[in-house]
Amino acid sequence: MGGRTLERESDEASDLLARTRLLVDPVLRTAVDSLPTAMRRVAAYHFGWAEADGTPAHGDPGKAIRPALVLAAVQALGGRTDQAVRAAAAVELVHNFTLLHDDVIDRDPTRRHRPTAWSVFGSSDAILAGNALHALALRLVAEERHPAAAVATARLADCVIELCEGQQADCAFETRSGVTLAECLRMAEAKTGALLGCACALGGLYAGAGSVAVEALDGFGRLTGLAFQYIDDLIGIWGDPETTGKPVGSDLAARKKSLPVVFALCSDTPAATELADLYATGRPLDDAELARAADAVDRAGGRDWAQAQACDRMATAMDFLARAIPDPAAAGDLLTLAELVTRRNR
Q1: 210-220 per-position pLDDT tens digit
Q2: Which residues contact 52 (CB under 8 A, 6 or more apart)?
Q3: By CB count within 10 A, which of 7, 49, 96, 159 is most buried?
Q4: Which helix (H) or strand (E) holds 111?
């Protein structure tokens, strides 16, 4: 891949995601339109299709990385992408179900550059709309006549349980001291890696691949997801609000035990002590304290470590991908998506 420029890679990724949106969005809209009025209104707002009052909007529906992984895996293995569009849409519905719930849990005020659904419609309506998206996802796959539908439905359901386990651990870590790096890594794999792994595995199933290839694709997706989480954790501390749509230092303000933070806390350095003292305060951190906390993570090595770990995880992900799809040319779209994940800035 060394001869490719970043500009070309960006263009390829943008084209791939745009093609995915063209295929998946009609299925998503049809599914959401089947919801009762109140939940449909919240979901349409969350996806950026409507304003809070129900009038049409042209908001940001997200990158569609996960459904793109499903379709790219199908294509790489010689399957028919048209037979996997509903499965791809189901993965995107699950992703957005988790976003609706995460925003409530974290009390995040903004997502995709506008107020979060819970802050507009209330927590109860946002939670219930998320539950409905989860149900829609399972229905989309379960109603398929594809031979892989039953196995795919069970795999997606198992993935949701793992996602919930990861989210529960993430919440528990906020009030626990002494969180280990191993615990944090398990949480990150469950919370983020599981769905990317499931997306790739579903692509393998819909292409008719054997169990070895399907599990290798799952491994590729999981490790790509873990790299994604390292980068996302870095953005949660040092990301530009103009790009991320979230307040500066949002993860530090929420006292999240993100990967670079836990590494820093475990570093046995003066910066670790300073960071622990800031996290132990029982009040919201002011802007100066947030800046000090970010600096402490940096001085303790958390920033450099997370960046290096993201690269290492992607190298191992490439090994898994080669087991599933030995021909690099066939795996081109999956490689493009993996590169997008590791170079993301939002």
Answers
A1: 999 999 999 99
A2: 45, 120, 121
A3: 96
A4: strand 110-111
Written as six digits, the tokens of 174 are: 């906020």
345 phi/psi in degrees, rounded to 5: -135, 25
| Measured torsion, CA atoms of residues 177, 182, 183, 186, in degrees rounded to the nearest 10 | 160
End-to-end CA distance of the chain: 23
- Beta 114-115 vs 110-111: how paired, if at all? antiparallel
CB atoms inside a 10 Å sphere around CB 175: 8
Tokens of 146: 């594809």
Q: ∠ CA(56), CA(59), CA(64), 5° rounding? A: 120
Q: Please state the length of the chain.
A: 346
| Lowest-pLDDT range of 4-8, 10-14, 334-338 | 4-8
Provide the CA 131 distance to its chain's centre, in angstroms: 18
Is the distance from CB of 110 to CB of 242 less than 8 angstroms? no
pLDDT higher than 70, residue 295: yes
pLDDT confidence of residue 7: 61
Q: What pLDDT is recorded for position 1?
A: 42
Predicted confidence band at 71 (pLDDT cuts at 50, 70, 90)? very high
Q: Hey, how many other C-beta atoms are within 10 angstroms of the C-beta on 219?
A: 21
Q: What is the pLDDT of residue 246?
A: 65
CA 329 vs CA 32, 133, 336: distances in Å: 36, 35, 11
Separation between Cα atoms, residue 284 and residue 255, nearest integer Å: 9
Residue 75 and residue 332: Cα distance in Å, rounded? 10
- Among all chains, which residue has been given the structure tokens 């107020």? 115
Prediction pTM value: 0.91
Q: Is the pLDDT of residue 183 over 90?
A: yes
CB-CB neighbours of 53 under 10 Å: 8
